[in-house]
Write a structure and sequence with these properties.
By secondary structure, the chain is of the alpha/beta class. Helices cover 38% and strands 15% of the residues. Helix 4 packs across helix 11. The radius of gyration is 22 Å and the shape is globular. The N terminus is likely disordered.
Length: 334
C-alpha cells in the first residue's frame, strides 16, 4: 500500500474542484477574484483533503475541569440572519436563549454578531478579548475560514463544515428519526416519501439518511421523488401539486415542522384528507399544527446551554480531540 504524502498542494485542490490553481490561491488567501460560492467550494474541498489540518501539539490525556479555570473576556455568538434563521425563529431563537441564559449563569459576557462578513469580523473583533466563538446554525465556509485564523476556540450548534474540525452540538437526528420511523413501521405503514431540502442543513441530511437506513433495515422498498428532497420549504406547495394521485404515499416524513405544515396545507388544497388518506410527520416540535401526526421534540434551549458548557471545557482543554455532542429528542404523537 502506498503511503499518503504530507502537505496537500493547491494543484490537488484545483484538480478536485476543477478550477484553476490561480482561483484556489485567491480563495485560500482571501483575496478577491472568485465568487462567494466558488470560494466556499474551494475551501471545503481543501478542508476535506486535509489542507488546513493542524496536528494537536503538546497533546495530553490529562483533562482539566473547566470549573477551576476563572473566565475573563467575552464569548462571541455568530448568528447569521439567513432565510428563516434568526432571533424571531421558534427554533433558533430558543437555541440563542439557551446560550444567553447559560452564559449569564456563569457570569460571562456575550457579544452577538449577525450577518458577519470577513471585513467586519477583523475590524470589530479584538482576539485578545474574545475567549471563544459559538456559531448558531449555518455559517459560510468563508466566514469560518476567517475566524479560524484568529486561533480562538469554536463550537458550532446544529452545523458542521467539512473544511474545519471543531466541537459541535447537535440533536441526535439519526437516532430520533430511527425511533420515529420504527414507530410508524410498527403501525403498518409501508409507503413513504421524505420532504425537505437535504442540502439546507446538516440536520436535514442526517434525518434523510436515517429515514432511508431504517426503511432498508426493515426491508421496505422505497423510490424517492427527487424534487421532494431538493425544494425550499416555501416552494413545497409547487411540488405537492405535481405529484400524481397514485403516487401519494401513506406517510410524508418531513424534515421539520414548518415543512410538515406546508405539506399538509398543500395536500388539503388538493382535497386530500389528512391524516385519513395520508399522514404527515414533522421534526423539532416548533408547531402544534394539529394535523401533524407526530414530531420529535428537540430541547432547543438545552442545545444552546450545552454549547456553552462545551466551549468552557474546550477553553480549558485546547489540545484535546474535537467532540460532537448529541442530545436525544422525544417522540410526540398527536
Amino acid at each position: 500500500m502506498q503511503a499518503m504524502r504530507g502537505k496537500v498542494t493547491m494543484q490537488e485542490i484545483a484538480d478536485l474542484t476543477k478550477v484553476s490553481k490561480f482561483a484556489v490561491s485567491r480563495a485560500i488567501s482571501g483575496k478577491p477574484g472568485v465568487s462567494a460560492e466558488t470560494r466556499d467550494m474551494i475551501l471545503q474541498a481543501a478542508g476535506q483533503l486535509g489542507y488546513f489540518k493542524n496536528d494537536l501539539k503538546n497533546s495530553s490525556n490529562e483533562l482539566q475541569d473547566y470549573n477551576v479555570h476563572l473566565m475573563s473576556g467575552t464569548i462571541l455568538v455568530l448568528f447569521p440572519n439567513v432565510r428563516f434563521q434568526n432571533r424571531e425563529s421558534v427554533y433558533w431563537g430558543a437555541v440563542f436563549d439557551g446560550i444567553s441564559a447559560r452564559l449569564n449563569q456563569k457570569g460571562i459576557d456575550i457579544l452577538t454578531l449577525t450577518e458577519p462578513t470577513s471585513d467586519r469580523m477583523f475590524s470589530l473583533l479584538n482576539p485578545d478579548a474574545i475567549q471563544g466563538i459559538i456559531t448558531v446554525g449555518a455559517i459560510s465556509t468563508t466566514v469560518i475560514h476567517e475566524i479560524n485564523q484568529l486561533n480562538i476556540p469554536i463550537v458550532m450548534v446544529d452545523h458542521q463544515d467539512p473544511a474545519f474540525l471543531c466541537d459541535t452540538v447537535f440533536t441526535d437526528n439519526m437516532g430520533s428519526m430511527k425511533h420515529l420511523m420504527t414507530m410508524l413501521i410498527s403501525k403498518g405503514y409501508k409507503k413513504y416519501q421524505f420532504v425537505g431540502n437535504i442540502e439546507y442543513a446538516q440536520s436535514f441530511y442526517e434525518r434523510w439518511l436515517s429515514f432511508r437506513a431504517t426503511l432498508e433495515q426493515f426491508g421496505i422498498p422505497h423510490e424517492q421523488i427527487p424534487s421532494l428532497i431538493g425544494t425550499p420549504v416555501d416552494e413545497v406547495h409547487i411540488v405537492m401539486g405535481e405529484i400524481p394521485e397514485e403516487d401519494i404515499p401513506e406517510v410524508f416524513i418531513c424534515a421539520n415542522d414548518s415543512t410538515a405544515q406546508y405539506t399538509i396545507e398543500s395536500l388539503q388544497k388538493r382535497g386530500i384528507e389528512i391524516p385519513g388518506r395520508c399522514a404527515v410527520t414533522g421534526f423539532d416540535n416548533t408547531n402544534d399544527f394539529s394535523p401533524i401526526l407526530a414530531t420529535v421534540n428537540v430541547n432547543k434551549e438545552l442545545l444552546g446551554m450545552r454549547a456553552v458548557d462545551q466551549m468552557l471545557w474546550r477553553i480549558a482543554n485546547r489540545n484535546s480531540s474535537f467532540e460532537k455532542k448529541q442530545i436525544y429528542g422525544d417522540i410526540i404523537v398527536r
